[in-house]
Specification:
heterodimer, A: 12 helices, B: about 270 residues, globular
Chain lengths: ~300, ~270
């Protein structure tokens, strides 16, 4: 341990006591709740533990071999990919529009920002239930009274529409979260730059695409990354809005893992799936970090 | 003139989006004071009388005040512990030059991307099966602290690097020791970022369902997110009290948001730039 001081503070008592009292307790909790469970999880995924008792053996990579030929797992992964693609596109497009709209200097801008953010202070569990009522009882009632037969049965009872419904609800919530990040991005674009581009003959759309969007690139990267990672891990809304149904057609990966472990008691297999989910998220983050760095260098 | 119509159109578009984001809550609120029959006949009709008995039913069936208390205890204790366990390590990371400290810090940052599912099963196995800590808020509080440490340290550290060390040097010359220096000089300077940290952590913990549901089995320990699920699946025909229950579980967070909305919007920006 090298004890010196980067900040150049005159070191009176040495920094070792500081590390011991300020740093290590937090590190210990982090190890006990995150690092050790994670490593233990990798071990569990290599066994045939069923959740009860301590009688289990080491089975090597058997669980991994099995899950990659398991239709239920592969289906929930591809479903999650579809869901993620839908949410990432829908929420980011909406958020950019909102971000632009609420930095354009309209009256009541601050109020609109505050009001639109409300869905994000409420948890996914409650939001899912609220929307379940809307889809099942209010939208159908509205459709019936207006005579729209196509909408008179709930979206949640049809497999394809149910997937659309969960994408809509998640994007509805996420877009106003991302909006706040885009607002910060658009606000940081110098005003004279936009005016200069206008004078040079840019149309508003060109001005947006060629001048502003490149300048808020870091917001775009952050938002896309955030929406991908969040979508891959979605659980609460999945549970409360569709409960994986109808017929398991909206069971996304996190919910699938949860069910496999706590309903079917296949803990070791579920843990192997969790490790795969972890790997997917890590790969996405690395790609994102790489792309981000490359763009930074270009600028 | 074109400019004026343009800004009027933008204003109307903003109103339209606001309606999209808020109408579900308005609908719930409206139907929470109607009877279940009125709701089933027409969910869009205005209430004819205030049926507040829906709220009393929801309060008693959800054991609302006990549930609210549990959620508060959980949220406040996690947030308060992180006030120390976020700032103290961050101080060490930003002010002490040590290869050990910086290596651990980078590992912590890296661990932030891991999805909760990766340690969900082992956590249950270790804390509930092995240590017997099931059906109590204690493991939930402990694990929630652990899972938020990396983010907290990261957030505070980035703020600390922008504070000039000259103030600390002056305090050292005046005879402070390292600990006095932290608690009397540095910690007060961290107030803005600490508020951000508290707000961000509190929102996450308050709304958490999954972690709590893994450890809290019996009714007397349930949090709001868990209780609303139980309540809604137990009483499946009588809709009006359910609406009241949903409104009740939204209310505390909504009041919190109204009280410190500016901080929350700032926290979103600061917290997302990783």
């Amino acid at each position: 341990l090298r004890i010196s001081n980067r900040a150049g503070l005159k070191d009176r008592n040495g920094t070792l006591p500081l590390i011991l009292t300020f740093f290590l307790p937090a590190v210990l909790i982090w190890l006990l709740t995150l690092v050790i469970p994670f490593l233990y999880g990798i071990y569990i995924s290599l066994t045939n533990w069923n959740g009860i008792g301590n009688n289990f053996g080491f089975v090597g990579l058997a669980n991994y071999v099995r899950i990659f030929s398991d239709k239920n797992f592969l289906n929930s992964l591809s479903r999650t990919a579809i869901y993620t693609a839908g949410v990432v596109v829908l929420s980011n497009v909406t958020a950019v529009i909102l971000g632009k709209l609420l930095t354009s200097g309209i009256a009541g801008q601050a109020f609109f920002r505050t009001a639109m953010f409300v869905p994000n202070v409420i948890g996914g569990m409650v939001l899912g239930y609220i929307w379940k009522f809307i889809f099942n009882l209010t939208l159908t009632a509205a459709a019936k009274s207006l005579g729209w037969t196509a909408m008179s049965t709930s979206m949640l009872s049809d497999p394809k529409k149910a997937m659309a419904a969960i994408i809509l609800v998640s994007s509805w919530q996420l877009s106003s979260y991302l909006m706040v990040i885009y607002i910060a991005g658009f606000t940081s674009v110098p005003k004279d730059l936009r005016e200069a581009a206008r004078i040079d003959g840019c149309s508003p759309l060109q001005c947006f695409r060629l001048v502003e969007l490149p300048l808020v690139r870091s917001s775009v990267t952050v938002c896309i990354f955030l929406s991908i990672v969040r979508s891959f891990m979605v659980f609460d809304v999945n549970l409360s809005l569709t409960d994986g149904g109808p017929f398991g057609t909206t069971q996304l990966i996190a919910y699938h893992i949860y069910n496999l472990a706590f309903t079917s008691q296949k803990f070791a297999t579920a843990q192997a799936e969790a490790v795969v989910l972890f790997a997917v998220v890590v790969i996405v983050s690395l790609v994102q970090a790489y792309v981000f760095q490359k763009r930074e260098v270009q600028q | 003139v074109r400019r004026k119509t343009g800004s009027a159109a933008r204003f109307l578009l903003a109103v339209f989006f606001t309606v999209i984001f808020l109408f579900p809550f308005a609908l719930m609120l409206m139907n929470s004071v109607k009877t279940s029959v009125e709701f089933s006949v027409n969910p869009f009709s205005l209430p004819t009388a205030l049926h507040l008995e829906n709220y009393t039913t929801a309060i008693s069936k959800m054991h609302f005040f006990r549930t609210l208390g549990n959620t508060l205890v959980l949220t406040v204790s996690v947030a308060l512990v992180l006030l120390l366990f976020g700032t103290m390590p961050a101080y060490v990371v930003s002010r002490v030059k040590s290869r050990f400290v910086s290596s651990v810090y980078y590992l912590m940052i890296a661990s932030m991307v891991a999805p909760f599912q990766a340690f969900m099963i082992p956590l249950v196995r270790i804390y509930s099966a092995r240590l017997g800590l099931s059906d109590s808020l204690v493991p939930v509080i402990f694990i929630a602290i652990g899972l938020n440490i990396a983010f907290s340290v990261f957030l505070v550290r980035s703020y600390l690097t922008s504070i000039p060390v000259e103030i600390e040097q002056a305090a050292l010359i005046d005879g402070c020791n390292q600990f006095q220096l932290f608690f009397r000089v540095v910690f007060p300077m961290l107030a803005p970022i600490n508020v951000t940290l508290m707000v961000f952590v509190a929102m996450g913990i308050w709304n958490d369902y999954l972690l709590s549901s893994l450890f809290l089995a019996t009714q007397q320990h349930r949090t709001l997110a868990m209780m609303i699920r139980v309540f809604l699946s137990q009483y499946s025909i009588d809709y009006a009290p359910m609406m009241a229950g949903l409104i009740l579980s939204i209310l505390p967070m909504l009041l919190f948001y109204i009280a410190c909305q500016r901080r929350i919007l700032e926290a979103v920006v600061q917290g997302s730039i990783k």
